[in-house]
Every structure is written in structure tokens, then in C-alpha cells.
Design goal:
The chain has a domain at 35-105. The chain contains four helices and four strands, in the order βαβαβαβα. It has helices at residues 14-19, 40-50, 74-83, 98-102, and strands at 8-10, 26-31, 59-64, 90-94. A four-stranded mixed sheet has the order 1-2-3-4, covered by helices on one side. Strand 3 (59-64), helix 3 (74-83) and strand 4 form a beta-alpha-beta unit. The two termini are 25 Å apart.
């Protein structure tokens, strides 16, 4: 599946050290404006299946971003998360300053 945004699974990288994310989780970090064409919905929908597998039961998708010039897709994304009981697997972190993002690499 092609996803039009850079997503990476991190387990023990700077994201945990700098942002106090749990080290016992597999982390997918999505960064960008919460607009439809970014594909956040595709990752969230995939989590419905992935988190059912023992290998990915501890997978958490952290979304760093807020509304963009094309609107704010957050309401729809949060509705899907609630509807599919994915609250333990999706975290809406909100806007993050570019300077903070630099510390992740």
C-alpha cells in the first residue's frame, strides 16, 4: 500500500528519549497537516487489522499535526478511532514546532 506521507516505525529512537513515549510500544509517527490527502486515515484503518496480530498488539500511531490550508480532518479521524475502538493505538499529539521535530532525527 502506498501512503503519501513519510511514516516510520520507531521502537527505541530519539522520539522516546525526547518526548517520553513508552519504550514498550512500537511507534508509528505521522507528521503533517491533518488534511485528507496526507493519508492519515489509511494508517488508522490499517491499525484495525494490524493491532489484532500478536506481533503488532503494542503498535501506537502518534499523529503530530494540526489543521492545514485545506481544512481540518481531525474530527473525521477521531470519529473513526472511536468507532473502531482504537483509542489505545492512536494519539493525536497536536501541533509541534519545527524546532522540536529536528530533535527527532
Amino acid at each position: 500500500m502506498w501512503i503519501p506521507i513519510n511514516f516510520t516505525i520507531w521502537t527505541k529512537l530519539n522520539v522516546e528519549r525526547h518526548w517520553d513515549y513508552p519504550s514498550d510500544k512500537q511507534i508509528i509517527l505521522g507528521v503533517g497537516a491533518l488534511i485528507h490527502r496526507k493519508g492519515f486515515d489509511l494508517v488508522i484503518k490499517a491499525l484495525s487489522t494490524l493491532t489484532q496480530q500478536p506481533k503488532f498488539h503494542n503498535l501506537v500511531f502518534y499523529i503530530l499535526g494540526s489543521e492545514g490550508a485545506e481544512g481540518d480532518y481531525r474530527t473525521e479521524l477521531k470519529h473513526y478511532v472511536m468507532e473502531h475502538n482504537l483509542q489505545e493505538h492512536v494519539v493525536f499529539q497536536g501541533a509541534v514546532a519545527n524546532q522540536q521535530l529536528i530533535t527527532l532525527v
